């Protein structure tokens, strides 16, 4: 059962879209599409919260081609499979939940500091990890701020004195694919991970 979940770097119990697709008998592309829909609603604040539950990654298939995938925590898994019905789906949900709980119990037993000195070392490690994460996020934010070719909808609107809500993100997404541009995701200090679009997509949108 533990092969359904795994331990993340920060001690979280995680699973991924490949495991979910395999267990539930779904096409991985359909699972990816469902997660993309969860992460790309009209409510950007909700999207930011959902991006804490799903992290995009890639994997190589048998041909060596890189393909998209998602790593998710228990919250993300629960939201993803919430609408999947039937006895088999219920059975698989139960197995995943049991696996999450079993690994969480195991990790708590392993990671509990046994001495005061060990607790201090653990605290120091956590502080160091947070500092590294903060530095990385600041670096990514700087990259977003300095980019002249890729913009988030809110940044474009701000620089052009517009209301960002007037820009239809669905149309932007369709234009991106139509023009052959990928939709990138990058960290923003104010909004979490946001979609950014190539400048030519904005120019085409406002033609």
3D architecture notes:
This protein has helices at about 15-25, 30-40, 45-50, 75-80, 85-110, 115-145, 155-160, 170-180, 200-205, and strands at about 5, 15, 55-60, 65-70, 150, 185-190, 190-200. It has 9 helices and 7 strands, in the order ββαααββαααβααββα. Helices cover about 55% and strands about 15% of the residues. With about 210 residues, it is of the alpha+beta class.
Give me the side-by-side strand order of the main sheet: 1-2-4-3
Query: How are helices and strands ordered from N to C?
Result: EEHHHEEHHHEHHEEH
Summing up helix and strand content along with how strands pair, one would put the structural category as: alpha+beta
Largest sheet: 4 strands, antiparallel
Counted by DSSP, the helix tally is 9
What's the overall average pLDDT, rounded?
A: 80
Gap from first CA to last CA:
54 Å
Shape estimate: globular
Low-pLDDT parts are none
C-alpha Rg, in Å?
20 Å
Provide the helix percentage: 55-70%
% residues in beta strands: 15-25%
Instruction: Give the strand tally.
Output: 7
